[in-house]
Amino acid sequence: MSTSSNPPCIVFIGGGNMCEAMLSGLFKTGHPKSLIRVSEPWDQRQEYLRKTYDVAVYADNNDAISGGDGPRADVVVLAVKPQVVGQVVRGIATILRDTRPLVISIVAGVAIKDFSRWICGDSQTAGVPIVRLMPNTPALYGEGAAGMFADSDVSAAQRLQTEYVVCNIAKEYFWVDSESGVDDVCSVSGSGPAYFFLVIEAIEQKAVELGLPRQVARRLAAQTALGAAKMVLAAPEDEDVASLRQKVTSPNGTTHAAIQQMIKDSVPEGIANGVQACRDRCVSLSDEFGKL
Q1: What's the whole-number mean pLDDT along residues 275-288?
Q2: Which residues bind NADPH per the record (predicted)?
Q3: Residue ranges for the binding site for NADPH?
Q4: 48-56 long-range CB contacts below 8 Å, 24 or more apart?
Q5: Is the whole-model pTM more than 0.90?
Q6: Residues at the annotated binding site for NADP(+)?
């Protein structure tokens, strides 16, 4: 992993929430502000990023990557919306080919082959090194989870650079062995926070109907979810989640009654089907972007 004595110069293309989460994490661990640049098209957002993080912010993607008299970009993080990513990447293709930084994409559903096509076209030259990174929104609070896949042009040193960036936003992060594994990660943790919001929302609403004040219900439900997650993470690796559930479920007790009703209502199957639907959508998105 890159050390504080030799940190990479990182350029963010797109200054939205995930960029901000990464900036916050990098600066908390001492990354030099002189080695961060952001490209962001909206004037108001540019000013916010400058005032909040004291970083160089550009309106032009190519200018941000080149840096003028500053250091050249070692890492370029693509943090734009999927709808514009093809246009954005084609616009910086020449400078990426010329300088060959590590490109880290956090854009869901876009395959490496499409990035390579947008950057290199039909060229037979070696491709630009690309990593697909699937973070999630709890990264905004330093509680993220992430999965990563590197193409064959990514060196061992660049893998360490990727981990250097990711460890600042994710408590749990893993390399996957195939690009399809990024879709698996998306279906579990990338979209996963919304699954738990749905569960907390349902518990909160029922608790209000039972008579608890809404804020009390919300905080009880959220803290319970957080505590249960910490119990799972603290358990030995050979202890599965089902055994944890069984330990807190006395036969014919109150928890047993709740779990049996949820099983009767096909709650586990519904959640599993939702995870599968998410993954299926990841695949269809990749097919759509492959036509751009």
Answers
A1: 91
A2: 62
A3: 62
A4: 49/15, 49/20, 49/23, 52/20, 53/20, 53/23, 53/24, 53/27, 55/23
A5: no
A6: 13-18, 79-82
